[in-house]
Amino acid sequence: MKESRSLLSSHEAAAFLGVHFRTILRWADKKKMPHIRYPNGRIKFRREDLTLWLESKTVVPAGVEHPTKRRERTKMEQSIKNANEILARHYPGKKRKLIAGSPAK
Question: Where exactly are the structural domains of the chain?
Fold first, then answer.
């Protein structure tokens, strides 16, 4: 039952992706996107599959970082910053780089 809530109709998938529902059906027929086809011909789409598919199709211009990688890098930088702050509290007076990848203080 839980899975059925994450399944989208072609109209819902079209609204989610911002395209016409016939485009969704055409892409599904040509196997260009992930979908579930039932024996009665009905087509459903998992929201998670559509999100991953859309991210894989995102074209990023040269010199621009992909949003997913930027998010991951930002989380890592925040973790390093937090760890350095904790270490600086426990070892005051140290003026060297405490964790690799972070700027020296």
Answer: 2-57, 65-96
Residue 101 gets the label, from left (phi > 0), alpha (psi -120 to 50) or beta, of left
Instruction: Give the integer Cα–Cα distance in Å for 101 and 105.
Output: 12
pLDDT in tens, 27-41: 999 999 999 999 998
Is residue 4 helix, strand or coil? helix
Can you name the CATH fold of 2-57?
A: Multidrug-efflux Transporter Regulator; Chain: A; Domain 2 (1.10.1660)
Q: Read off the pLDDT of residues 10-19 as tens digits, 9 standing for 90 and up.
A: 999 999 999 9
